[in-house]
Write a structure and sequence with these properties.
alpha/beta; binds magnesium ion; about 35% helix; eight-stranded mixed sheet; about 400 residues; binds adenosine-5'-diphosphate; binds aspartic acid; 13 helices; single chain
């Protein structure tokens, strides 16, 4: 087999203890001994990033984001050192590299930074000297030298972005499940592993709650055509290939079911329906950095309308505050109704483009379970319903069964 350049990303559970770190070292070396050049991206040990963020919050309720990134990024520093040591212990050659040592350049949006450029030279030098390059995921550096992090689950994005920068043949994402499933296998016991999934479907699943890949990693893969192979670090099974859409994928009406947590909704009741009213509501929210999702406006009567939108629960209190302070000419405080503990449950599949009745079937399944649908939003390849969080798992299981996803 010709030598390949392989990027392997290992998630938190895969490096969760010393034995697992040794197993990772052996796997990397096995790949290298087959004649491949191997670059490894590592996450913090499982639970570590949460622990670090919690520590910071014990000192400051709303910690300074720059300092938070300095703290949160250390979990990956420990992991790369340990993995490099484990490779040495197995008789191999390896060098650990942090984000700033590679020079993974990002913007300065702390806690959600975006990668702008990756310097491939330090990695290339390590590979040229026969070493495995062990790179810290999740972290980068901005143009002023500040440490940044890429958002939760960001090591996936580090992995795929480095694969792009190196023009790697494949980016392997090693995790604690065998691949991408028709639903979260930890929620739906008969969820089935998908062999091949399109970038587009994976993008939807990732953005609608399937945390197996961070959405930005899929965007990178799709934009630059890097095949992503999601697989387990606990066995040698073939995982899921995320690839450009193939003809056969259209035959499948729904590929997966997923749900988000921690959503909230705000309704502005009976506000005046005049041109520009929406901009007046959403401008101050946008300026406060609040991301809104599903937006529905329904005409009531006498020139009055209800404007409803969803947002992350974490932003709810702030959003209400912004509306009360900055939209007083549009609504009084008692016209603003808020609700939290909502979830968005979605079915995703490129086959929807050519199959009728998918939405109907989804509504029938939810109706049978007596689940109240608050809001609906659709795109060409997904249908989402906002429901009460306490029914989310029930809805995911019912949809998974109703669309017979466990079968094929
Ligand atoms: P890692 O630490 O390796 O990055 P994550 O916990 O971030 O792993 O992602 C893997 C988890 O994603 C799985 O344990 C699983 O519970 C969850 N998950 C959610 N939806 C899916 C899905 N459709 N397919 C596979 N895993 C999923
Ligand atoms: N350690 C980071 C997190 O927990 C990044 C990652 O695991 O991908 O979010
Ligand atoms: Mg992850």
């Amino acid at each position: 087999m010709p030598a390949l350049l392989i990027v392997q990303k290992y998630g938190g559970t895969s490096v969760g203890n010393v034995d697992r770190i040794r197993a990772v070292a052996r796997r990397c070396l096995a790949s290298q001994r087959q004649g491949n050049r191997v670059v490894v991206i590592v996450s913090a040990m499982s639970g570590e990033t949460n622990r670090l963020l919690k520590l910071a919050k014990q000192i400051a309720e709303i910690p300074d984001e720059r300092e938070l990134d300095v703290i949160a990024s250390t979990g990956e520093q420990v992991s790369v050192g340990l993995v490099a040591l484990a490779i040495h212990a197995e008789g191999g050659k390896a060098v650990s590299l942090l984000g700033h040592q590679v020079r993974i350049l990002t913007d300065s949006a702390f806690a959600r930074a975006r990668i702008q450029d990756i310097d491939a030279r330090a990695i290339g030098a390590a590979l040229d000297s026969g070493k495995i390059a062990v790179i810290a995921g999740f972290q980068g550096v901005d143009k002023d030298g500040n440490i940044t992090t890429l958002g939760r689950g960001g090591s996936d994005t580090s992995g795929v972005a480095i694969a792009v920068a190196l023009k790697a043949d494949v980016c392997e994402i090693y995790t604690d499940v065998d691949g991408v499933y028709t639903a979260d296998p930890n929620v739906v016991s008969n969820a089935r592993k998908i062999d091949r999934i399109s970038y587009e479907e994976m993008l939807e699943l990732a953005s609608l709650g399937a945390k197996v890949l961070q959405i930005r990693s899929v965007e990178f893969g799709m934009k630059y055509g890097v095949p992503i192979h999601v697989r387990s670090s606990f066995n040698d099974n073939e995982g899921t290939w995320v690839v450009p859409e193939e003809k056969a994928m259209e035959a499948v009406m729904v590929s997966g079911v997923t749900a988000t947590k921690d959503e909230a909704k705000i309704t502005l009741h009976k506000i005046v329906d005049a041109p520009g009213v929406q901009a007046k509501v959403f401008r101050p929210l946008a300026e406060a950095g609040i991301v809104v999702d599903v937006i529905v406006q329904a005409y009531i009567q006498d020139g009055r309308t209800n404007l409803t939108f969803t947002l992350s629960s974490a932003d709810l209190a702030r959003a209400q505050d912004v509306l009360i302070k900055q939209c007083a000419d549009i609504c009084t405080p008692d016209q603003i109704k808020a609700e939290s503990d909502l979830s968005k449950v979605s079915v995703v599949g490129v086959g929807m483009r050519s199959h009728a009745g998918v939405a109907l079937k989804m509504f029938e399944i939810l109706a049978k379970e007596n689940v109240h649908v608050h809001l609906i939003s659709t795109s060409e390849i997904k249908i989402s319903c906002v429901i009460e969080s306490k029914y989310a798992e029930l809805a995911v299981r019912a949809l998974h069964d109703g669309f017979e996803l466990g079968k094929r």
